Amino acid sequence: MMAVIVRNPTQEELPTVWEVLCGAFGERPRERFRRQIWEDSTFALEQIRIAEVDGKIVSHVWVAERPIFYRGQTVLPMGGIGGVGTLPEFRGQGLATLLLEDAIAYMNRKGHAISMLFTGINPFYARLGWADFPEWRFKLTVRRIPPLEETPSGYFVRPYEPDQDLPAVQALYRKHIAALHLSLPHVRPDAFWRDGHPQLLGLQVSHVVVAGMTGELVGYACAFPTENGLRLSEFAFDPAHPCALEALAIALAQEAKAEGKEGVISGITSWLHPFPQKLAALTEATLYHEVFEGMMLRVNDLRRCLETAQPLMEATLQATGVSWGGSFCFRLTQPEQVATIKVEGNTVSISDSDEAEVTLTVTPRQFCLLFFGTASATMWRDLVGANLSGDQMALLSLLFPPHPSVYFSGDHF
Ligand SMILES: CC(C)(COP(=O)(O)OP(=O)(O)OC[C@H]1O[C@@H](n2cnc3c(N)ncnc32)[C@H](O)[C@@H]1OP(=O)(O)O)[C@@H](O)C(=O)NCCC(=O)NCCS
Questions:
Q1: Taking the CB of the first residue and of the last residue of the chain, which one, N or C, has fewer CB atoms within 10 A?
Q2: pLDDT score recorded for residue 213
Q3: Which atom of ligand 1 sits closest to the CA of residue 98?
Q4: What dihedral do alpha carbons 25, 28, 29, 34 form, nearest 10°?
Q5: Half-sphere exposure (CA, 13 Å, Cβ side) for 263?
Q6: How far is CA 204 from the centre of its chain?
Q7: For residues 100 and 128, is the Cβ–Cβ distance under 8 A?
Q8: For the segment 148-178, what is each residue's pLDDT rounded down to a tens digit?
Q9: CA distances from 262 to 93, 143, 332 (A)
Q10: CA of 401 to the centre of ligand 1 (A)
C-alpha cells in the first residue's frame, strides 16, 4: 500500500505545486495558476493541501478565502474550492477525495458556512455534499447602433483610470450589491482589486459612467473585446441614476459593432438584471439567457447560514407591522444537519432544536434555491413537495424573499 501524507506545502515548494497543477490540468492554465499562487493577496499557504506519495507531491486542493454578501447586507464566510487536481499516473486511488474531505475539515475549522466550486464533473463533488446551483448568462446581437446623441443628458462614459477611479468604483460595487440585495458577490478586500489573479479572470474595469453635474461615478463595466463583439465580466450602476445604464449601453453597443464586428455582446448577469434588458431594448436585439449549472454550493454549516439571515428576517417581519408566529425545522440531507427557525412576536431565533410546527427535509440544492432567493416560497413548496398552510407559506415567503444572485468571474478560484 502506498504511504500518503496530506499536508500544507512550504513556501519553497510552491514552484513544485505549480508544476503539479500544470501536470494535472495541462499547460493552458499555466499563467492562471502562476497568478493564483503569486498574485492573489488573499492566498495563504494554509489554504493549500497537497497529497504526497513516496516523497512526491501528486495531488492538490486550494480553499480560497471568499466571504460573500447575503442579500447585499450581511456577510457569509465562504470557502472556494479550486485547483482540484491529481497527476494522471496517480488518479483513481482516492487522493482527490481525501484532499476534499480534508478541505471540508479545514472549512469547518475556519467557520466557512458555505463552500462554492466550479466544475464540469458535478457528480464527483455531489458525493461529498456539493449541489448544482444555477448561474445566468446573457447574449444578444446588436441590430441597431444607438447614436451617441441618445446618451441621457448630463451623463457620459469614459475609459477607466485606475489611479483616479478605483475608490469610487469600489464604493459603487458595494452600493450596487446593497441596493439590488444581491447574494453571492465576493466581499472583496481593497487590495484584491489590484491583484493580478482576479484581473486575469475578469476584474478589469474598462468603462465608467460619470454624472456630469457632480462628477460622481454612477456606473462601470468590465468589457473585453472578442472576435465578434464584447464580453462583459461585470457591471454595476447606482440605482439613484438609472440613466447610467442607458449611457453605458450606448457606449458598449457602439464598441461591439466597431471595425465591422458582428455586435455580439455576452456576459454573466444576475437573473433579470436591468442592464441586459436595457441593452436589448436600445439595440433592438433579441435577448437570450442561458442557465448554466457548473457552479456548486455546499452548506457546511446550516445553522450559521440561518443566523446570518436572522437580522434580515427580523427586519422584514417588523416592517409588516403585524405580529408573526411559527417555526420551521430544516433537516438537511447532505451533510446531515438540523436547524430550526422560531418566530415569536417578530423575534427570530435560530437553534439546533428539531422541534417545530413543520419539519422540512431538504437536499442541499433545495435549501440553496430557497436561501439564495432563486425560488419563491410557492415555487419552492412544490419543488420539495411540502404541505404548508396559508399562514406558514406567508411566513416562509417573508423569511426567504426571492432575490438575485451572481458570482463574478474575477472572483473565481
Ligand atoms: C478529477 C480528478 C481531480 C480526480 O482525482 P483522483 O485523485 O483520481 O480522484 P479520486 O481517486 O478521489 O476519485 C476518482 C473518482 O473521480 C471520478 N472522476 C474522475 N474524473 C471524472 C470526470 N471527468 N467525470 C466524472 N467523474 C470523474 C472517477 O470516476 C472516480 O470515481 P470512482 O471512485 O467512483 O471510480 C482528476 O481526474 C484530475 O486531476 N483531473 C484533471 C483536472 C480536473 O478536471 N479537475 C477537476 C476540476 S473541477
A1: N
A2: 86
A3: 12
A4: 110
A5: 21
A6: 17
A7: yes
A8: 999 999 999 999 999 999 999 999 999 999 9
A9: 48, 9, 48
A10: 37
Distance of CA 117 from the midpoint of ligand 1 (Å):
15
State the Cα–Cα distance between residues 149 and 262, nearest whole angstrom: 22
CA–centroid distance for 25 within its chain: 23
Q: Given the CA of residue 87, which atom of ligand 1 is nearest to it?
A: 39
Q: How far is it, in rounded angstroms, from Cα 289 to Cα 284?
A: 16
pLDDT in tens, 87-102: 999 999 999 999 999 9
> Is pLDDT at 2 greater than 90 in this prediction?
no
HSE-up (13 A, CA, CB side) for residue 412: 20
3-state class percentages of the chain: helix first, strand second, coil last, to nearest 5: 40, 30, 30
- DSSP, collapsed to helix, strand or coil, labels residue 293 as strand
Say which DSSP state 152 is in.
Answer: P
d(CA 258, CA 275): 20
